[in-house]
Amino acid sequence: MWMPMSISAYTGTCIFLTILAVIFRFLIAFKSVLETCWIDVEVNRRYAVVTKKANANVLAAIRNLAELS
Length: 69
Fold this sequence. Notes:
Blueprint: H1 7-43, H2 52-68
């Protein structure tokens, strides 16, 4: 088990733990910001809507190409 034996070691440990806590909180906040951006991108994603008429036109074009081959 590690224990600081001098005042400078104790101070260094406190500073290290403080910096570690700040980095940890920054990473948690940054993760939240990234998740918000990812959700916005997902919501704004454009989806292709295929109607029955368009689908029938595509099938007819495919049949025509098959007949030409």
